[in-house]
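Q: Structure tokens for this one, please.
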Amino acid sequence: MVRVLRVPDQKYRDKVFQSMRENLSTLRRETGRDFPWAEMAGPLARRFAEVLGPLEAAEVPAAVRAEALRLAPGFLAEEWLFKKGRRLPAGRDVRIAGEVNVLQRVHKAPGGFLRATLVLKAGLLEQVSLSGDFFCYPLDALERLEGRLTGAPLEKAAELLEAFYAGGVEFPGVAVADWLEVLGAKGRG
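A: Here is the predicted structure, written as tokens:
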């Protein structure tokens, strides 16, 4: 699943994979064996019917199948798949399960480039990894900030950052508002 999500870099891909492993499972992992589609289709259809109501078997309309076949060569061509010039968003948000999301955000502050990779679970910053090309004092301030934010509600980020800055740490050119931006907590708290 991590491969098909087109996750842009290795660090973020690893975080998504770890979070998926902790919050999702597979039939193979739970039972130790693979299931052929024919064996799974019936139970899946019955369960979907329990949730969605009665289902009717249907074939994909011939016109839809024909259009998919007509479009496939263009969308499967390497020129389109690896097309240069498409801008990646300044952040990614991958829903893993329920209320578990892995987020990656970037922000350019006057003091440097900030990057945050987060696991957000039911509104709590379950894991926080911060990096970038900025300066901080003392040298362990960034690690201390990660520790302060880990386990906290995202809505409390502004309050925690204000208290952290009041404790004598320095991030020249990086304000509380910059951290809130990269955490996705701008306008909260």
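A few notes: The chain has two domains: 27-81, 91-183. The longest helix spans residues 37-52.
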